Amino acid sequence: MSITPDGLQFPLQSPQQKPSSSKAGRAIIAAALANVAPHSSAQAQSEKNWRKLYTVHFKKLVEQGLSSPEASLKIAEDGLAQAHQTFEFYRDGQKHLLQEVFSLPAGQLHTFKLTGHSKSAPEWYVPYQGQKLQGDALLEQIERWETQGIMETSHANALRECAVHPEWFDLSDRTTVLFGAASEAGPLTWLTKWKANIVAIDLPNSRVWGKIIDTVSQGNATLYAPCTEDLPADTSPNILKEKLGANLLTQIPEIAKWLLQFEQDLDLAAIAYLDGEKHVRVSMAMDAIMHYVSQQKANTSLMYMCTPTDVYAVPAEVIEASKEKYAERSKAQTLISKSVATLSRKHFFQKNSHELIQSGDQAYGICDCLVVEQGPNYALAKRIQQWRATLARAQGQRVSINIAPSTTTHSVTKNPLLKAAFNGASLFDVEAFAPETTNALMAALWIHDLRNPESVANPEVELNHPLELMMHGANHGGLWRVAYLARTALPFAALYGFATEKLPMGLLSKLKK
């Protein structure tokens, strides 16, 4: 007995068959490459082992995108067009293409308003290793992160600008829309300290909304939440957490039309995350809504947070730093890595690519930090966001998109291998951040991009290449500058993480030298 599908889905071959996310993913990447690199497109389309070898084709997107600014925008345009033609939306047993969804009849979502009880003035600080960093202590830590190659200079400079402009953090004049408001890596906690008008979209779920309501109530911000009922203003929190919410996968037209009711300019933040193939679907749902709202409302801005475990175009200076790190390895490191590489037939400890690609007057490198285990669906979900970001900015829209460091969120650390890899990341001069630190840094970067006219988020700031949008403001935790291809060193970071409590510190310190 087949179950009638509901909401946004990968293409269904038949009611009896499961949809193939791999087939759809191959087609989207192939379409993105088709007009720029037909041969690469054909290779992606014919790839037999997509789940293991998708990394090759995602790297090709960046290589071909670097060939010219026009090529990168064409890849984004064609990839998004194919994605919007691919996904299907089901309602009442009827199938519709995603691009048709906004012409469907939409039920009404009501708005519930909740104001926080705090009268505190907005403030910003960075929680880090049990400290509350502000003033000189914060500036000193930013300097250390920059010097150690944990964050790029552009990220460090943005944080310094935030430190000298505390007035930026009064967000009473802004209306921020959080898709996936309760996300552990998202900025909700900080927005509630900064007098923001927060339009929160998240699943109807009592645990999720209990967290959102509690957080907002303790702060100085104002919450606007969707609800299928018109609730009285004095509704108790216990009832609210059972009633509020909207589903991005099934209520796309309702959410989009609800957002259009707000008279203010909107800052739309795509921070929702779901496991597996659902991550692609929710990314597509956010993309459809954000694009629709942007077309209807002038001055709408977009915000995304990139993962460091992806493949990026990077400045030539980053490649030089990786090259130096490889050349300056200790004798112990060199001997161990060579031995392991030989035993594994060069599968482990592969040297990072140090080739440069000329694009116009500039030379760029490619930093491939894709982790095969994260899977092609995760990579596709994040690529869709990068495509929209580069295309929207080129079309004159303000777009904040910054790389956030690897963070020990629950969704990551529930995987024992990744948890151990984070514990052992210091072996390769990589830092994994606690969620509260990442939240504070990335929330501040978003405010910087909204407030500072010199930020690259501002489309009036000239870029040499559209892919520079992801180079600026990057806090990759050191992954861009490691000596090895990240995924070939990850197993040993994990072993080191497992061993930190088992082996003598003397031996461990030798490995780090």
Can you give a write-up of this model?
By secondary structure, this protein is of the alpha/beta class. The protein has a domain at 110-115 and 124-306 and 378-398 and 432-479: Rossmann fold (3-Layer(aba) Sandwich), CATH 3.40.50. Helix content is 45%, strand content 14%. It has a 7-stranded mixed sheet, with helices on both faces. Strands 1-2-3 form a 3-stranded antiparallel sheet. Strands 12-14-13 form a 3-stranded antiparallel sheet. Strand 13 and strand 14 (362-368) form a beta hairpin. Helix 3 (50-65) crosses helix 4, helix 8 packs across helix 9 and helix 16 crosses helix 19. The radius of gyration is 23 Å and the shape is globular. The protein starts with 6 loop residues before the first strand and ends with a helix.
Please give a handful of descriptors for the protein shown.
globular, alpha/beta, Rossmann fold, 7-stranded mixed beta sheet, 14% strand, 45% helix, 20 helices, 3-stranded antiparallel beta sheet, single chain, 513 residues
Task: Find the CATH topology of one domain.
Answer: Rossmann fold
Outline the biggest β-sheet. Answer: 7 strands, mixed
Strand order of the largest sheet: 4-9-8-7-10-11-15
Question: Which residues form runs of ≥5 with pLDDT under 50?
Answer: 503-513
Rg calculated over all Cα atoms: 23 Å
Distance separating the two termini: 61 Å
The percent range for helix content is 40-55%
